[in-house]
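quick one, 265 residues, struct below
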Amino acid sequence: MKSFEGKVVAITGAASGIGRALAQRFAREGAELALCDVDEGGLKDTAELVKTRRRVSLHRVDVGDREAVEAWAAAAAAEHGGVDAIVNNAGVTSKGSLAEARYDDIEWVLRINLWGVIHGVKAFLPLLERRPEGHIVNISSINALVPFPDNGPYNISKYAVAGLSETLMQELSGTRISVSCVHPGGIDTDIVRSGRNLSEAEGDRFQRAARTSPERAAEVIVAGLKRDRPRILVGADAAVMAAMKRLLPISSVRLAGRLASRLVD
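---
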């Protein structure tokens, strides 16, 4: 999709972070926006920050709720006359080893990070098929390139999103619908501070290590979408990890584990 002028872009998790920055970026590109989040206050703040003369619709949606996502897709199509792109961005995290992780924490992460993407794809794909061209954008993570210890539920969910995206690339090849899987590195958002089982000190360490701003991430993502890139790496750390995984598939996993342990210590 070389231009988003006049297109309708639906974004999940638009109340903050990358979702908010993408809403602002797409607005500058001339797109209409269908934004959703569970945080209604944050969603309204995003709408106030978006500078556009085009339509912006706001919807409170729990992406883990299939019926809610389907209702949002129908409402977005009715309000905007159709949808050209879906950005499955909403995500959460929970800290702790897999041995210690509670089942409800694992289910919570997978419900949002994986099932939220599945619901978004299934609900919006029929709408994209009605348009001259469409785009599915799934936000995965650097953790789907190289996992980090004590992030098991998050790692699992993001590897699954990458697999889902690559399957869609195969199945939609030759159609008018493009698929992009995005792998951000450390982005300066509140995902860690709002996660489960994380201390304030751990949140501070993540913020210090996160070198890429949400605005820069949105810029890189939109530029990649305009080039129809199937995989978009965001940040120098993501590029380094991708290279390490390609050259040293097993050693890179061990190295990431050691580095993570030193940061904790």
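The chain is about 50% helix and 15% strand.
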